[in-house]
Each structure stands twice: as C-alpha cells, then as structure tokens.
C-alpha cells in the first residue's frame, strides 16, 4: 500500500486532498511541503519561516502505542516554531477522534477555541467543521495562529485547486472566522477520561 492509500484509508474523504494535488505540492512547493514516510507512518507537513502546519499524520494501527507519533511530533518541535493542525471534532461513535485529542493534549497542544473553521469538501460538497490545535514554543496568540492558518489555506489547501479539481475551494474568509472571546476548549472533559 502506498503512502496515499494509507492516508485515504484512515482520513475521511471530506478531509483528503487528491493524490494529484499532494504530488503537485511536493513537486512545485517542495521547499515548503514535505513528506516524511516510514514503514509505519506518513507525515505530510508544510514548513514556513515562522510556523509548521501538519497536513496529515498517520501511524499504522499495529504500531500505535510504540511512540512513533510522539517521535514525529518531537522532531517537529525541535524546529522551535509554532505547529498548527486541523482535527475533527469529537465523534463519540468514532473512538479514534477521542484518541487523537488525547494524543495531542499529552503533547501540549492547545485548542484555538477563538477560531472557527468550516470547509466545504470538493469531493462530497459537504461542509466539514474542523478544530484548530497548536503547539507554541513561546506564548503565541490565537490572532497569530489565525493569520498563519490563513496563509496555509491560501498557499497549501487551495494551491492550483482549479487545475486539479476543475473548481475552486471557498475563499479563506468563507472558511475561517474569528470568534469574539475564547470559546470552550475541546480538551475540556477529556482530563478525567481514560485513553
């Protein structure tokens, strides 16, 4: 099974870029967009001057719990930049969503609760709400995270969308919103639960 098949079996179709899109990013934006692949993991990420964006992180089910995900995150943390990623809200019928949140919470990620993010899938035409998590070596504000996420959306998510999909993704202002004040963290309620 190749790297793309591994990702597309694990991630919902609404969240997946096409293989063609990802290959174009790797080829044409290879100075920014990267693939770290091993027998039991695939990590797709973008590295900008001030921050990193994790596009996809997959660890094989048979090797989970062996510290592979932690090692990959630690490798990124050593770059001493903000790390941003998108996650699905908790789905109590899908235990993986809770496990993912526990993992990122253990890795000291915070929830950017003041950022709203809903993207329409070009594959299904369904609106997909996602939550934004981030790790910061300093105390970065959610306003800074918001601006970095806008850059990611424009430079990575929508790169050559018309060429690849035959239609455009929504504009960044349609997808990202800034909420007044801070909302409730998606980590609330996880503290007392067991993994």
Topology:
Layout: H1 3-10, H2 19-28, E1 33-38, E2 41-47, E3 51-59, H3 68-77, E4 82-87, H4 95-106, E5 110-111, E6 115-120, E7 127-129, E8 131-135, H5 142-157, H6 161-165, H7 172-175, E9 176-178
Parallel strand pairs: 3-4
Antiparallel strand pairs: 1-2, 2-3, 4-8, 5-8, 6-7, 6-9
Overview of the molecule:
By secondary structure, this protein is α+β, with helices and mostly antiparallel strands. Helix content is 33%, strand content 24%. It contains 7 helices and 9 strands, in the order ααβββαβαββββαααβ. It has helices at 3-10, 19-28, 68-77, 95-106, 142-157, 161-165, 172-175, and strands spanning 33-38, 41-47, 51-59, 82-87, 110-111, 115-120, 127-129, 131-135, 176-178. The protein has a 6-stranded mixed beta sheet, sandwiched between helices. Strands 7-6-9 form a 3-stranded antiparallel beta sheet. The longest helix is centred in the last third of the chain and has 16 residues, at 142-157. It is globular. The relative contact order is 0.16.
Integer average pLDDT:
90
Indicate the overall shape. globular
Low-confidence stretches: none
SSE ordering? HHEEEHEHEEEEHHHE
Residue share in β-strands: 15-25%
Extended strand count: 9
Main sheet, how many strands, which sense, barrel?
6 strands, mixed
Number of separate helices? 7
Helix content: 25-40%
SS content category: alpha+beta
Query: What's the alpha carbon Rg, rounded to whole Å?
Result: 16 Å
Q: In whole angstroms, how far apart are the ends?
A: 29 Å
Biggest sheet, spatial arrangement of strands: 1-2-3-4-8-5
């Amino acid at each position: 099974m190749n790297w793309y098949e591994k990702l597309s079996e694990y991630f919902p179709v609404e969240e997946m870029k096409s293989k063609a899109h990802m290959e174009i990013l790797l080829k044409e934006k290879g100075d920014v967009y990267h693939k770290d692949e091993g027998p039991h993991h695939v990590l797709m990420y973008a590295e900008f001057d001030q921050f990193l964006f994790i596009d996809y992180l997959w660890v094989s089910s048979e090797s989970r719990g062996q510290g592979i995900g932690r090692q990959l995150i630690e490798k990124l943390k050593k770059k001493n930049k903000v790390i941003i990623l998108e996650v699905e809200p908790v789905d109590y019928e899908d235990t993986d969503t809770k496990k993912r949140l526990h993992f990122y919470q253990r890795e000291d990620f915070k929830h950017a609760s003041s950022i709203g993010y809903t993207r329409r899938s070009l594959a299904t035409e369904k609106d997909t709400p996602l939550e934004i998590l981030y790790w910061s070596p300093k105390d970065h504000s959610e306003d800074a995270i918001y601006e970095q996420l806008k850059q990611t959306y424009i430079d990575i998510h929508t790169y050559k969308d018309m060429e690849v999909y035959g239609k455009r993704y929504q504009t960044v202002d349609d997808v990202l919103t800034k909420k007044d004040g801070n909302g409730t963290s998606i980590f609330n309620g996880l503290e007392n639960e067991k993994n």
